[in-house]
Every structure is written in C-alpha cells, then in structure tokens.
Amino acid sequence: MSYQLDFSFLAERWPDFVAGAWLTIQLTVVSIALGLAVGTVCALTRVYGGALLKRVVGVYVELIRNTPLLIQIFIVYFGLSSLGLKLSAEVSAVIALVVNMGAYTTEIMRAGIQSIQRTQLEAADCLGLTRLQTILHIVLLPAMERVYPALSSQFVLLMLASSITSTISTEELTATANLVQSDTYRSFEVYIVVALVYLGLSALYRCAFWLIGLVLFSRKRKLGTAL
Questions:
Q1: Burial 82-96 (b: 16+ CB within 10 A, else e)
Q2: Fold of 10-223
Q3: C-alpha dihedral over 188, 194, 195, 201, to 10 degrees?
Q4: Which of the 8 DSSP states describes residue 165?
Q5: Which of 58, 62, 80, 191 is 20 to 30 Å apart from 100, CA to CA?
Q6: Is residue 183 within 8 Å of residue 12, measured between CB atoms?
Q7: What would the pLDDT profile of 166-175 be if each residue is shown by its tens digit?
Q8: Residue-wise pLDDT tens digits, 30-71
C-alpha cells in the first residue's frame, strides 16, 4: 500500500500556521519573562529568606516540579473557573506556564546564587555596599551568567511544552495543526509541517538567547560563548 504525500493544503492554510506560531511566540515570551522574575525572587528567598519563607518556596517548587504541566493547566483553567474567576484560554495558559517556569527557574537560579564565593560577598561588605547593591551587582548577574546555558535550554523547553495548552483551546501552533488536519484529513503532512515550524522556532529562540547573552555578559561577549 503506497501513500502519496500531499502538501497542497499549505497554499490556503499557511496563514493559519503563521498565526498559530505567532501566538506561541507571544505566550512563551511573556511566560519566560514573568517566570524568570518569579524564579529569581523565589531563588533569592530560598538562599537569603527566613525559615518560613524558605519552606513555603520549597513546597511550591516541589509541588510544581512533581506534577504534570497538563494538570497544572487544567487546575488554572477549570479550577479558577469553578471558583467564579473566568479567564480566557490564553491568560490561563500564561498563568500556568509562568507558575511552571518559575519553579524550574528557582532551582536553576539558586544553584547560580550559591556558586558565588563568600569572599566576593565579604569584599562587597568591605566596600560598604548595601545588601540590595550586593545582590544586584555581586550576586545576580554573575549567578545568571553561570547558569545561563541551563536557563536558555529551559526556556526552549517551555516553548515546546506550550503545545500542551492546545488542550484548553489556546489557538497556538499545535491547536492550529489539529484544526487543519481535521479539515484536510492530511494528518501526516500537517504534523510534518508543524514539526518543522517548531524546529525553526527552537533555532530562533536559541539564536535570540545567544544574542541576549552577548549583550548581558561582557566576559561571554569577549569569548563569544553566550550559550
């Protein structure tokens, strides 16, 4: 039995794939930015916070890292709705992705923060820097530089994982693929196209993070090794 590939549907449906890819980019860029902020604050709390705050953040991290992202999305979308807070699929997707990204970023950033040598902190004290200045200039940027490759990989994984949000009718790339294949009955071809688009997005994200790394980290800019 022979199967003939037919990609003729692309002539009419390529705008749908572009729109789906664009929504995927929007969802993940917002989620990455907010997730990084949440993870950084939680990481600082786990290192410098009080015992109670450390425990609360620890519970949050373990709870999120040991439950499926799909379940977290359902809890946000259906759970909040049952409590009377009705959110759109896109907003629910961003909230779930931010919560998930924040937990993983917390552990990555915590490793970077704890890698800063105590002598550097003591030198900051000798220079009369305040605690906030020490954290901003001595701790955070060098810590992020050390774990930036891990962060970049996690961000790309988040973009790929955003396909799960199609289960709550978020009209991103995977949801678009499901709609097109149901209309055209060319499932194999549709998902080949979507796989190639995801590969392209992954390359785009890695290139973007490489450029961001060159801008943020002067040492890596000199070496040309932002990733």
A1: eeeeeeebbebbbbb
A2: MetI-like fold (1.10.3720)
A3: 170
A4: G
A5: 191
A6: no
A7: 999 899 999 9
A8: 999 999 999 999 999 998 888 999 999 999 999 999 999 999
